[in-house]
Amino acid sequence: MGRKRTKLNLTHQDRAEIAHRRKIAGDRRQQERLNFLILASTGDRTLDELARAADRSRSTIQNWMDKFRKGGLCELLRRESAPGMKSPLTREGVKSKLVQGLKCQRWTTAQQIVDWLEHEHGIHLARKSVYYWIRKYGAPGK
Predict the structure, then answer these.
(1) Does the pLDDT value for residue 137 go beyond 90?
(2) Which of 105, 51, 58, 93 is CA-nearest to residue 134?
(3) Would you tell me how many other CB atoms lie within 10 Å of the CB of residue 70?
(4) Is the Cβ–Cβ distance between 88 and 125 less than 8 Å?
(5) Is the CA virtual torsion 58, 61, 63, 66 positive or negative?
């Protein structure tokens, strides 16, 4: 038995508003979510297929669907924090030291990086953020 297809039921008015917002959206984040709504409204794909098409995790897609069902388009596009917040890693070459350490495998766990940032640079960074940097710079291993 195949997986259940996922479908968001959109009214004609919803579709018109989504199409209009897609045309004027300057924010990549909004464009991505609006495109997701169009894909999800067809009912042709499973949650996993939607996640692959959006290049997001299944849980992210489920969160987007929950937000849309809960509060509509406004809830889906709402930001928790302002865009463009600068990373604390941009201070005084911290990022270059991090990249260099990742390439030479200075650390074996993300927690070691968190501790290094805290002790050496006074930067409080969540492990989740450290995993982002590890993936971004292609460090070998975990």
Answers:
(1) no
(2) 105
(3) 9
(4) yes
(5) negative
Q: What is the pLDDT of residues 43-64, one digit of tens each?
A: 888 889 999 999 999 999 999 9
**CA of 76: how far to CAs of 18, 34, 107, 112, 115, in Å?**
12, 9, 37, 35, 35
CB-count burial class (<10 Å; 0-12, 13-18, 19+) for 88: middle
Contact 36, 50 (CB under 8 A): yes
In this predicted model, what pLDDT tens digit does every residue of 108-127 receive, in sequence order? 889 999 999 999 999 888 88
SS (H, E, C) 9-34: CCCHHHHHHHHHHHHHCCCHHHHHHH
Beta bridge partners of residue 6, listed in sequence order: 45
> Sorting pLDDT into bands at 50, 70 and 90, what band is 82?
low
Tell me the C-alpha to C-alpha distance, in Å, between residue 103 and each of 93, 96, 97, 115, 135. 16, 11, 10, 18, 12
Radius of gyration in angstroms for the set of CA atoms belonging to the chain, rounded to a whole number:
19
Q: How far apart are CA 45 and CA 16, in angstroms?
A: 22
